[in-house]
């Protein structure tokens, strides 16, 4: 649900966030129940993942800024950036988040934080150099829409649950948690065969768990980007301006060294545009963002609707 009536609520996004969260919790509960039934300690199944999840949720903004070489900036240090955020927050009637700059050349922006009162909006040095002020305002309106929709925290938790569900099943295999099924596997061919089957089942289960959580998270991520495009464009009243920024940033992304893009790939779910290496159709297929053409098509349709209105 949006925090203010001036940023349009997206009921489709709200429903999808609820369903995705529910399915991931059920998935993790099933995995945890099976592992506990097989003798895995409660600490591994519940306590450790819960502690890690709380830390990631509570410190998500600090983790993201550290990973992207970002730092909080004052109005004196970045007056233009703060001026844009001030105008957008006044227009949206929402609390002003902290403003940060990431010292990387890759043109991008992201929002992070556990709620609107503890949010951070960050622009990279690359996007500040490449976009003019109206285009940058359009990009930041997109990021503020994420904050208002509260989908940043949901994506953080959703990504973590899927990761942990797959991680625990792999831990069982690599740590030999099935060792209790028998001690003389080398001497007993039948026990050795049973162990091999069990190991294969664990690996297969791990792949299935990860695949389900990945698909659920990617589906939510793609929809939330379209929702932020819509809300951000409506907030500034100029969908064409956001489309222009999208085209420019996507084009400039191809000029960034492949090494830098790969280092930033694990933040793709939170970026304005994904950091994809050149010519990687597989990466595009499993991208956290909808295709550029789909985003531009939606903005063009919205532009026509606003002009008719």
Automatic annotation (TrEMBL):
Pfam families tied to this protein: Peptidase_M48
Occurrences of domain Peptidase M48 (ranges): 75-302
Entry keyword Signal: no
GO MF: metallopeptidase activity
Cofactors, names only: Zn(2+)
Cofactor binding, per record: Binds 1 zinc ion per subunit.
Membrane-spanning parts: 12-30, 36-59, 152-175, 195-220
Active site, renumbered: 143
InterPro entries (UniProt xref): HtpX_protease (IPR050083), Pept_M48_protease_HtpX (IPR022919), Peptidase_M48 (IPR001915)
Family stated for the protein in its record: Belongs to the peptidase M48B family.
Official protein name in the record: Protease HtpX homolog
Organism: Aciditerrimonas ferrireducens
Lineage, highest ranks first: Bacteria, Bacillati, Actinomycetota, Acidimicrobiia, Acidimicrobiales
């Amino acid at each position: 649900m949006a925090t203010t009536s001036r940023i349009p609520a997206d009921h489709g996004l709200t429903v999808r966030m609820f369903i995705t969260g529910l399915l991931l919790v059920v998935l993790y509960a099933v995995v945890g129940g099976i592992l506990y039934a097989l003798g895995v300690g409660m600490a591994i199944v519940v306590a450790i993942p819960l502690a890690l999840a709380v830390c990631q949720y509570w410190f998500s903004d600090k983790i993201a800024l550290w990973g992207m070489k970002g730092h909080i900036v004052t109005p004196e240090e970045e007056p233009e950036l703060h001026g844009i955020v001030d105008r957008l927050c006044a227009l949206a009637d929402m609390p002003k988040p902290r403003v940060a700059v990431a010292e990387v050349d890759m043109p991008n922006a992201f929002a992070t934080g556990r709620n609107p009162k503890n949010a951070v909006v960050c622009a990279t040095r690359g996007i500040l150099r490449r976009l003019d002020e109206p285009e940058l305002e359009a990009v930041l309106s997109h990021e503020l829409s994420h904050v208002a929709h509260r989908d940043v925290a949901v994506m953080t938790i959703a990504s973590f649950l899927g990761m942990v569900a797959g991680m625990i099943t792999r831990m069982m295999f690599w740590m030999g948690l099935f060792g209790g099924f028998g001690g003389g596997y080398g001497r007993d061919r039948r026990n050795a065969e049973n162990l091999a089957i069990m190991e294969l089942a664990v690996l297969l289960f791990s792949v299935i768990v990860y695949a389900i959580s990945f698909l659920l998270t990617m589906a939510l991520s793609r929809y939330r980007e379209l929702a932020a495009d819509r809300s951000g464009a409506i907030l500034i009243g100029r969908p064409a301006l956001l489309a222009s920024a999208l085209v420019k940033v996507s084009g400039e992304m191809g000029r960034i060294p492949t090494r830098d893009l790969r280092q930033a790939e694990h933040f793709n779910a939170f970026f304005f545009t994904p950091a994809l290496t050149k010519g990687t159709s597989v990466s595009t297929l499993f991208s956290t963002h909808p295709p550029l053409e789909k985003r531009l098509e939606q903005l063009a349709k919205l532009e026509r609707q606003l002009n008719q209105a």
